[in-house]
């Protein structure tokens, strides 16, 4: 619902879009596109995908008509060629992990947008390494967005307390604080091996595809960049919207 609501989260994304330089293209790693192997969209006109159910009709009517860029897709494929085979595809578009955020950051939908898939069989090390290999493209005007959640455990959400601002279970608060601490300290090895970080992180990363977009972004960061955190707030006890920006 953040896609169509005016709230603190969507306003932060809007402010971010106004502050950032206008990118040549946006590449989003969304928790909602898992594939065999790594794929990247190469559509010239990617469709808006409504990959959810049971929400108000207004959400299904949202369209985000950003263009794609086959040329940028080729750049991504070339950048990863040495270690990660990439398949170009027109069978996907922009899922809600992408457009729910970008319609606030770039409401005019005038920047080419591509999605990079998450290889469901790959390791944390692989996700981080892909980010490292893509880092030079940041310096060529491409904005990379990892869309997910540090804490994402739908089984333990208290649906009756969704409107209790900042409400979090103790383990969720602990996991989110630990992740922020390790990011600040650039202790990325521990974040890559998140399964060894204890019970709180085990509960937080109940749905790993929502966590691993962060690993790509950590790989994309330069050593001299300090993280800027925003939207660091819990929802429903078992979700956090904590976001981090580099550069």
What is the CATH topology descriptor of the largest domain? Answer: Protocatechuate 4,5-dioxygenase, Chain B
The average pLDDT is 96
The topology string of helices and strands comes to: HEEEHHEHEEHEHHHHHEEEE
CATH superfamily of the largest domain: LigB-like
The CATH class of the largest domain: Alpha Beta
Structural class: alpha/beta
Count, helices: 10
Strand proportion: 5-15%
Structurally, the number of domains stands at 2
- C-alpha termini separation: 28 Å
- The counted number of beta strands is 11
CATH architecture of the largest domain: 3-Layer(aba) Sandwich
For the sheet with most strands, the description reads: 3 strands, parallel
Features:
247 residues, alpha/beta, Protocatechuate 4,5-dioxygenase, Chain B, 2 domains, three-stranded parallel β-sheet, two-stranded parallel ribbon, 10 helices, 11 strands, 36% helix, globular
SSE arrangement:
Elements: H1 8-19, E1 25-30, E2 34-35, E3 38-41, H2 57-60, H3 70-80, E4 86-89, H4 96-105, E5 113-115, E6 118-119, H5 124-138, E7 142-147, H6 170-184, H7 188-192, H8 199-204, H9 208-211, H10 213-220, E8 228-230, E9 234-235, E10 239-240, E11 243-245
Parallel strand pairs: 1-5, 1-7, 2-6, 3-4
Antiparallel strand pairs: 8-11, 9-10
Helix pairs in contact: 1-4, 3-5, 5-10
Structure report:
The protein is α/β, with parallel strands linked by helices and 247 residues long. It has 2 domains: 1-147, LigB-like (Protocatechuate 4,5-dioxygenase, Chain B, 3-Layer(aba) Sandwich); 148-247, LigB-like (Protocatechuate 4,5-dioxygenase, Chain B), CATH 3.40.830. Helices cover 36% and strands 15% of the residues. It contains 10 helices and 11 strands. It has helices spanning 8-19, 57-60, 70-80, 96-105, 124-138, 170-184, 188-192, 199-204, 208-211, 213-220; strands at 25-30, 34-35, 38-41, 86-89, 113-115, 118-119, 142-147, 228-230, 234-235, 239-240, 243-245. The strands form 5 sheets. It has a 3-stranded parallel β-sheet with strand order 5-1-7. The chain has a two-stranded parallel sheet with strand order 2-6. Strands 3-4 form a two-stranded parallel sheet. β9 and β10 form a beta hairpin. The longest helix is centred in the middle third of the chain and has 15 residues, at 124-138. It starts with 7 loop residues before the first helix and ends with a strand.
């Amino acid at each position: 619902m953040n896609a169509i609501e005016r709230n603190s989260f969507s306003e932060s994304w809007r402010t971010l879009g106004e502050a950032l330089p206008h990118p040549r293209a946006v590449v989003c790693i969304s928790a909602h596109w898992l594939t065999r192997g790594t794929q990247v969209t190469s559509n010239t006109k990617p469709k808006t995908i409504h990959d959810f159910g049971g929400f108000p009709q207004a959400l299904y009517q949202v369209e985000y008509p950003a263009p794609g860029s086959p040329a940028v897709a080729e750049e991504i494929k070339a950048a990863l060629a040495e270690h990660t085979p990439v398949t170009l595809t027109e069978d996907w578009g922009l899922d809600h992990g992408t457009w729910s955020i970008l319609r606030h950051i770039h409401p005019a939908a005038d920047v080419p947008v591509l999605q990079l898939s998450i290889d469901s069989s790959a390791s944390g090390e692989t996700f981080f390494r892909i980010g490292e290999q893509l880092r030079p493209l940041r310096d060529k005007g491409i904005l990379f967005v990892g869309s997910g959640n540090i804490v994402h455990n739908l089984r333990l959400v208290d649906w009756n307390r969704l409107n209790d601002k900042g409400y979090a279970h103790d383990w969720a608060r602990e996991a989110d604080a630990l992740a922020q601490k390790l990011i600040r300290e650039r202790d990325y090895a521990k974040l890559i091996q998140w399964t060894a970080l204890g019970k709180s992180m085990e509960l937080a990363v109940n749905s790993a595809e929502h966590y691993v977009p962060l690993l790509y972004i950590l790989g994309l960061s330069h050593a001299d960049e300090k993280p800027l955190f925003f939207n660091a707030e819990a929802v429903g006890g078992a979700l956090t919207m904590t976001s981090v920006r580099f550069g």
